[in-house]
Amino acid sequence: ENATDAWPAAKTFTPQFFKDNYGDCTTRFGKQEFTVSQILDLTEKSTKENPAPYPAQFNILTKMPELLDHMQPLHLNLATPNWLKAKVLKGKLMNEMDLHIGGAGNHYAVHKDTYNVHAWLIQLYGEKEVIVFPKDQEPLLYPGKEGLLKSRSPIDFSNPDYEKYPNYKNATPIRARLKAGEVMYIPRGVWHTTMAYGQNISTIIDQMN
Predict the structure, then answer these.
(1) Which stretches of the chain drop beneath a pLDDT of 70?
(2) Could you tell me which of 102, 104, 101 has the C-alpha nearest to residue 49?
(3) One-letter-per-residue 3-state SS of 87-108
(4) 78 partner at 20 to 30 Å CA-CA among 65, 97, 166, 186?
């Protein structure tokens, strides 16, 4: 709780702040290009029945590097050491940081992070629900057999198909609301997803130790 109090500018991360300072920044979702302002407008009106495009992610390091000045210390005095910063790994693993803007009805596929990284979910504005599954429940999530699919579940947890995935009935997900200013730590190898019930803005810091 109150983790972003380590950042002097933490209270400024509102939709209007991002519209005023980064409204013209762009990203691609599918075959379409969106600006920050457009995504903010869409997520404000998003519903479960008609959700906004998601995840429409904006790369902070390349699209809005000035934002990092508002997020120091970036590790929040929590996520150290981080071997992703080591010279030996430079260019070998993804070391990106994205701004996630979501709205009601938006959610990720159930997954575990690749490269065995730890994840620090940082809520900048609004709230979202984080759902995690104990590690020993991986067989209940029907992960894929090869490559990236091994870290992805085909189950739509918001509307699971129990006929197709009957063992999922035995899964016992743990749920928690993540509010603005709070950080949740997801250890490596833990299956998880998120669900939004209103407009929210967040980012993730990956860590390897």
Answers:
(1) 94-95
(2) 104
(3) HHHCCCCCCCCEEEEECCCCEC
(4) 65
